[in-house]
Input
Amino acid sequence: MPLDSNETAIRQRWMSVLAKADPDTLSSRWNALGREEDFTHLRKPEAGLVMTQGKISGTGAPFNLGELTVTRCSVRLADGRVGHAYVSGRSKAKAETAAIIDALMQGAERTELEAAIIAPIEKAMAEHRADEGRKAAATKVEFFTMARSANVK
Output
């Protein structure tokens, strides 16, 4: 059954958090739950390359920026739910864990996993971005010029 646009946006959010999470943080939060899920691989974790693109001046024509290593994985839980993950880097364990969590988030476990994994990681990432922003702001230099009058005597 296809997801409506609201459900799609919600799933995109949690998949983004899982993809961007630090592998050790994701692993420790998952292990802290003490869950053992019965699953089969639809696609075993495998690494590959994707071409990333940028846009000239943010609005212009796209150009190839470079290649990025990604690892993908797809799993099917014993109850039939399917989860997918694409994560940057070569961490097969992270891709598999993210795919399992994606599958579980599509069921009754969503609230528990949101509170135990997704929200704390998302909060930590937001705090990290804010810290980096404060560090960058501390180095900001403002230049000004004074207008000189041509009639100064």
Notes: The chain has a mean pLDDT of 90. Helices lie at 5-20, 23-33, 92-104, 110-138.
